[in-house]
Amino acid sequence: MAALTAICKKELADHFSSYRFVILFALIAMVSLISAYMVGVQIREAQGQLKPKFVFLMLFTEPGAMFSLVQFVAFFGPLVGLILGFDSINRERNEGTLSKLLAQPIFRDAVINGKFLAGLVLISVMMGSILMVITGLGLALVGIVPGAEEIWRVLIYLVVSVVYIAFWLGVAILFSIVFRSTATSALAALAVWIFFSFFVTIGIGILAGALAGSPSSDPLVAQQKAEILRAAALVSPMELYSDATAAIIDPMRKSTRTRLTAGPLEAISMTRFSGPLPLGQSILIVMPYLISLVAITAICFAVSYTVFMRQEIRSL
C-alpha cells in the first residue's frame, strides 16, 4: 500500500505540473463554461415560458452554440483519458526509469495500479471542478437553486463520466504497454477513438439504410431491423455512455431511445404519464448501460494489468 501511494502521488505531481495537463484542462473548462453560459442566458431570457421544475439540469442538457455539456463530454472526453495515459509506461521504459523503479522494493502491480489510480483521481478532479463551476455559474445566471434530486442526478452523472473517461485511460495505458514507441501508442489510441466515434456510427447508418428497404416494407420487419442495428451500435463506448446518461441527466426522458414507435393507445398512455421520472426509475432504465460501461472499463484495465505483469522489462 505504501508503494501504491508513492506511485500515485508521484504521478499526480507529474500531471499537475505538466503543461499538457494545464493546456488540456484550460481548453475543456473554457469550452464547457462558454456553452453553459450561453445556455444560462437563454434560460434566463425565456424563464417565464419554461417549466419551473428541473430547469437547472438544462444547463447540462441544452445545446449552447453547437452542443451541450453532455454531448461535449461524450465526444471529447475520451481525449482526456488518451492524453493522460498514452505514454505512461513506454516513456519510462525508453528513459530507463522503469527498470530502476522496479529495482526498488516496489512490485509491478503497484506501478500500474498507481498510474491508473492517479489518472482516475485526476479525471475526477477535472470533471468535478468543471461541474461545480458550471453549477455556480448557473446559480448566478438562472437564479434557481437546484433541488436534492437535481444534485443527486448531477453527482451520478459525474460518476458515470469518470468511469467513461477511465475506460479510455485504460485503453491508452494498454497501448502504452504494448508499443514501445510513444508516437505509435498515441496513434493507435487515436485510431480506436476515431473508429468508435465516426466509423461505427457511419457504418451502422449505412447498414440501416441498406436493411430498411423501400417505404412499402413491412413496418414490423423494419422495426425489428432497427432494434438489431441499435443493439449493434452498443459496441461503441460512446453509445453506451450517451444511453447511460440520457435518462439520468434528463428526467423527462422515458427511454434511452430518441424516438419511440407508438400507436394511438400508446400515445394516450404516454400523454397521461408525461411527467418527469423519479430518480430511481431513471436509474433502472439505464442500469444495463451503466453495468456495461463499468464492465468494459474493468476488462480493459484487467487486460492492461495482465500484459504488464507478464511483460519482460530490461534495463538499458
Short description:
The chain has 316 residues and is an all-alpha fold. It contains 13 helices and no strands.
Task: Describe the model.
- There is one protein chain.
- The protein has helices at residues 2-16, 19-45, 58-61, 69-85, 90-95, 97-103, 108-142, 148-178, 182-212, 219-233, 237-249, 264-272, 279-310.
- With 316 residues, the chain is mostly helical.
- The protein is globular.
- It has 13 helices and no strands.
- It has one domain (2-310).
Task: Quickly list its features.
0% strand, 316 residues
Poorly predicted tracts of residues? 258-273
Number of domains: 1
**Count the strands?**
0
SSE pattern: HHHHHHHHHHHHH
- Output the radius of gyration: 22 Å
Q: Would you spell out the secondary-structure blueprint of this structure?
A:
Layout: H1 2-16, H2 19-45, H3 58-61, H4 69-85, H5 90-95, H6 97-103, H7 108-142, H8 148-178, H9 182-212, H10 219-233, H11 237-249, H12 264-272, H13 279-310
Helix pairs in contact: 1-7, 2-4, 2-7, 4-7, 4-8, 4-9, 4-11, 7-8, 7-13, 8-9, 8-11, 8-13, 9-10, 11-13
